[in-house]
Amino acid sequence: MSGASIGTAQGPTNTGSGDQNIIIGGAGAQWTRKPAKDPRSVALDQRLMLSARFVPPPGFGRLQDGLAEPGRVMLVTGPPGSGRRTAAVMALHKAAGRDRGLVEIPFSDNPEDRPDLAKGDFWLLDLSSIGPDAGLKAWELLGELMGQAENLKIRLAAVLPSVTDGLDLSQFHANVMEISRPRTLAVLRRHLDAEGVPYDPVELRQFKRLDGLATVAMREVHRFARLAAQARELNGAAGVHGWLLAAFAALGKRGEEVARKVATLDSGRKRALFLAAAMLEGARPEALFQHSEALLKRVEHSPDEKPGFERADLAERLKELSAEVGEDGRIRFKELAYGGAVRSHFWTYFPGFRDEFGTWAAEAVQDRRGYLGPEDRTRVLLRFTEESLRTGELNVLQQLAGEWADDPALGGEARAILEQGLTHEQHGSDFRGWIYDQVTKGELKSAPARVLAGVCSEVMAPSHPEQALVRLHHLARRAPETRGRLLGLARSERRLYLRLLGRLCEGLERPSPWVSDVGIFLELVESLPGWVPPAEVRRGWQGVLSAAVPKADRVNAWLSAARQERDGGERLMRILVEAADRDIDVLSRYYLLARRWATEPDGSPELPSRDEVARRFCRMIDRAQGIGPLVGAAGGRGL
């Protein structure tokens, strides 16, 4: 298994303007998730999910053939929206099989984020979304990786920008593979199958609007299938043709419809209600009324001079907005994905009010007056985060996440923002960078430490495990309560275990080592896998022995672990002795510690006795000093 595992996006993501219903609890609740799985299995699940929806595009066979040979590099090009990243991932997946992972090389300035590269790996470098200013740097990174790939017999798929002006690809003609758009109908069928939408193949081929999907990006075909599934849930009796028509309407010109509607609203009060209805869709009418009034105050709108009882009632005002109160007593728009289009319109075309919108949304999430339930507050938070990500308001989200993470009552909400940010296709790297800054800038309180540890181990680790490990290590140094998250991730994969071991050795060799690295190292090697290179463990122990911290319990813990080893502890005790490097003071200290340890109460009589292990340890120490056992003294100098 390799380092950065590649799959589809996970967590609360939304690829368009349609609604997204994800429950995280609400104010004061922790993010509700299933127990954390091994990042390797999560990443494989994602790749298998992607595979179920994948239709090989023209040129895929050659790409797959090129990556079948170790040491090969394929440069994947293609028009925007053709699915070239997906094609690269699937080609690597088919070459690697289910038992091998894929390493995504991050395009990052942080040297700590570069993964450890090993012979026979499968790499992905995605340069599809880089800006023109990063072209030279990206080309330098690509050239470096191409050289390493050949030397280490690694398969590398690099996804190039859709516009490659300024890049001379002529010298790599044999490596360049242009991906064309796959057949739209075939892609749509795979996505409808995956979404559980039944259809008649003949009726689907005859769908008149199908030509309208022929030029949209592949992600929009996926969104179309999701919208069809939502249409089926809302109106099962409409049949497949009705579901497809509703999905096509939602995919296409919903934004234009909303723009025309906003133009007809002749007062700020109506527009505030429109936006509030879109943000609170699914809530009860009384909540909409209260929070739309709060929004008016936030945008400093003048009060309505007409007496309240002379104004139109809420039902009449909602009707003007193409909304209604459903049979369940909750606000909804009559058209599919209408609320998402309303939110996008206001965030896009009222940029001067984004700060006010954000402050209002944050207050609604906390809703101290109790008009919104947990699910309502969750929807507001996810919708606000989605719009902020779409418009690039990252600082707002990161500041809010930092403030809420400090409050134990809002830790779940802080985590929700970070999860959406980390799994965002365009801005995920920005949030990984922000988390790195948080875990390296000093002491951390328990509340934010728990939030950051959770998103690193459960959100970041499945797709970027080595970057998650780096952040968890920095975090565990400052917040010992998060150490379990770090060790759990490190033990999930050989590459990650060795990466952490190497980082600990480097940290312990510093002139002023982290004292906490001593404890992390000893917990990591407490149950030492047989494949771990003894030299690395020896190096770590030398750092422990050099650190100015108490060492008695450290050595004792390893002597206790030696009792459970199949070889009687020979390997562990040899590492300890070799780590002393013939230092008489250290070896003498070993004798004293072993002597005391051997006399302590034995709580595991079924294991080799403490006395037996201690005697073997002392004989090793004697040999290290060139001292042979005395005649008739089986225990060397004895205890």
CATH topology of the domain at 56-178: Rossmann fold
Structural class, please? Answer: mainly alpha
For the record, what is the CATH homologous superfamily label of the domain at 56-178?
P-loop containing nucleotide triphosphate hydrolases
Describe the main β-sheet briefly.
5 strands, parallel
* Largest beta sheet: strand ordering: 2-3-4-1-5
Structural Rg: 30 Å
Shape: globular
Query: From the 3D coordinates, which CATH architecture of the domain at 56-178 would you assign?
Result: 3-Layer(aba) Sandwich
What's the CATH first level of the domain at 56-178? Alpha Beta
Low-confidence stretches: 1-36, 630-639
Overall average residue pLDDT: 85
Per DSSP E runs of 2 or more residues, the count of β-strands stands at 7
What is the beta-strand fraction? under 5%
Specify the number of helices.
28
Distance between the termini: 46 Å
Share in helix: 55-70%
Question: How would you sum up this structure, described in words?
Answer:
It contains 28 helices and 7 strands. It starts with 38 loop residues before the first helix and ends in a 15-residue tail after the last helix. The protein has helices at 39-53, 60-67, 84-96, 135-152, 184-195, 201-205, 218-234, 239-251, 254-264, 268-279, 285-298, 314-320, 338-349, 354-366, 374-390, 394-405, 411-422, 428-440, 446-460, 465-478, 483-490, 494-508, 515-524, 534-546, 552-562, 570-580, 584-599, 610-624, and strands at residues 73-77, 103-104, 122-126, 155-159, 176-178, 323-325, 331-333. Among the domains are: 56-178, Rossmann fold (3-Layer(aba) Sandwich); 184-251, no CATH class; 269-391; 550-639. By secondary structure, the protein is mainly alpha-helical. The strands form 2 sheets. Strands 2-3-4-1-5 form a 5-stranded parallel sheet. Strands 6-7 form a two-stranded antiparallel ribbon.
